[in-house]
Amino acid sequence: MFLLEYFKMEFRESQKFSQVWILLPFSLIGSVVIFIFGFGIYKQIICKIPFGNNPLSDHGLIITSLLILLLFVTLFLLFVSAHLEYRINEKGIEYRFFPFHMNSRRIQWSDIANFEIIKYNPLSDFGGWGIRYGKKSILYSVKGNKGLSISLKSGKNIIIGINKVSELEEYLENLKQIRSL
Fold it and tell me: Is the dihedral of CA 12, 84, 167, 7 positive or negative?
């Protein structure tokens, strides 16, 4: 009875890009670019000294500066809002990498041949984090090097990055016991 009740529960995890080594360089580069264009606006519009060897018009400089600012703000918000979430329950496995997936992707238990927790190298195996395509698998990863590898009966393999390794191991062990009953 306990295993059946456990199976009705679900396992959830959500991860965000919070690595300083990603956000700090992006913020520094953005700040430098914004400072340069801000200085250009100050120099050309307020001080009336042309900015650069072949200066834009005042309107062109303002519009270009606003577009650059909009680009950096949009990219920064993309990094800050991006997150990977997944859940496992009696229906199967659902995952979503927002904002690239607006809706969750669902995998039914009947479509899964096997699943296991694996260790992988995000840089050498997939070229980094995010949504990555490898030789044999698609990786959805935000940080770390552990993942839930899901082998589908269709031959496709999906790896979802995990941080709560021990909790997921316990949940999956109980799940395998229930599914073998």
Answer: positive
What are the tens digits of pLDDT across the range 3-42?
A: 455 555 788 898 887 667 667 887 888 889 889 999 999 9
**Residue 133 burial (CB < 10 Å; 0-12/13-18/19+)?**
exposed
For residue 116, CA distances in Å to 24, 65, 100 come to 34, 49, 25
Q: Which of 63, 81, 99 is the last residue of a domain?
A: 81
Look at the chain and report how many structural domains it folds into: 2
Overall size of the chain counted in residues: 181
What's the maximum distance between 2 C-alpha atoms anywhere in the chain? 81
What is the pTM assigned to this prediction?
0.74
* Chain centroid to CA 110: 27
49 three-class SS: coil
Q: Residue 69 belongs to what domain range?
A: 20-81
Same-domain check for residues 107 and 137? yes
Phi, psi of 95 (to 5 degrees): -145, 155
